[in-house]
Amino acid sequence: MEPARLRAMLARTPGLLAAHLFACLSDDPSPDVLVPAQLLARLLTSHLPGRARAWLEHPHTGLIDADLRWSQADDCRILLCVDADFPAALARWAAAPAALYVCGRGSPGAATLAIVGARQATAGGLDTARVFAGELARAGLSIGSGLAEGIGAAAHEGAMAAGGHTIAVCATGVDRIYPTCHARLAARIRACGTLISMFPPGTPARRHHFPLRNRLLGALSAGTLVVEAAPGSGALTTVHQTRLLQKPVFAIPGSIRDPLARGGNQLIRAGARLVQESCEILQDLGINFNNQHATGSPAPALQPRSGPSPLDNKYEMLLDAAGFEPVDIDVLAFRTGWSGHTVASMLLLLELQGRVAPQPGGWYCRLS
After folding, report:
1. Which end of the chain is more exposed for a tag (fewer CB within 10 A), N or C?
2. Model-level pTM?
C-alpha cells in the first residue's frame, strides 16, 4: 500500500482521533516513514472504537479511490495530525480528528481568530465584522469562520479585502459548498485562503454536522470574537468550545433593546472580554500590532478609521434621533418634528454617504 492510499484510508476511518494516531507513532515522526502494513498492525492492536476497527479491517476501496482522485488537484490534500502544517492549536484538542480535508493556497496552520455571529445580521454588524476582520488580518492573524451567511461571510470578505488570509471551516465536504449562494465566496477563499473540513469530499449538509463544524472552528482558533448573536445562536457553540479549551472569548457590545446584541451582552456579563477596537484583541493575544503585516504586503500600525465628509447640523440631528438601533421613518419624523417626506429625502443622502443602511421592512440602521 502506498503512503497516499494509507492517508486516504486513515482520513476515512470513522471515529479515528489524532490521539489514536499519535499513540501509534510515538517513535516515528510521520506515517510516511513507516511501512503502511506496520502502521495498520499497530492501529489494530491499539484501543480503537469498534467502527474504526471494522473500517480498517474492511475499508471501502471505492471511497478511497474517489478521495485519491480528489486529492490529485493542485490545491487539494489530506492533512494528517502529524503533518507539520496541521493546525497546532487543533492538535492539542483531545477530540481532534486524525485528518482534515483541505483545499486552497494558504496554510491552515496560521494563527487564527474565529469571528462568528448572526446569519440575519444588521448592516452595522456586517460592517463591524468586515472592519475587524480586515484590521486583524492586516496585523497577521488568519480569520476563521464557518462560511455561513451574515457575520461569517462578512468576516471572510473583510480579511480578503485587506489582503489577508482566511480559513473557512465547512460543515460539508469541501467540494459541496453550503450555503450554495456562497459558491463564489468559497472559490475566492480557495484561491487565496483555505477551505477545511473534517468530512470527506461529497458529504452533503446535515443538521448534526454544524455543531461539529463550530466545535472544530473553536478548537483550531486562538480565540473567538462574537459580533451580533441572539441567545441560543449556533455561533455560541464555537464560543462554548473556545471556553472549554480555556481560550479567550471577545464580544462586541450592543444595545440592550437589540435582540441580536443579547447573546454578546450575556457573554460579556459571563466574563467575555468587551472589545471596541481590534487592537484590544491583538493586545490580549500578545500580538505586537505595530510590527505585524498581512500576507503579501506590509501594513502600517492600525490607524483610526476615517469617516465620511462632515454633515450640516440638521443631518447630525437626524443621526442623533436615529441612535444606533433600527428605526423607521415614522419614528424619526416623530422624534424630529419634521415631515416624513423630509426625513426620507435626508435618509437617502445619508445612505449614499454610508451613514445609514436600509433594512427589511422599511427600517434604517445607523452605521457611523
Report:
1. N
2. 0.81
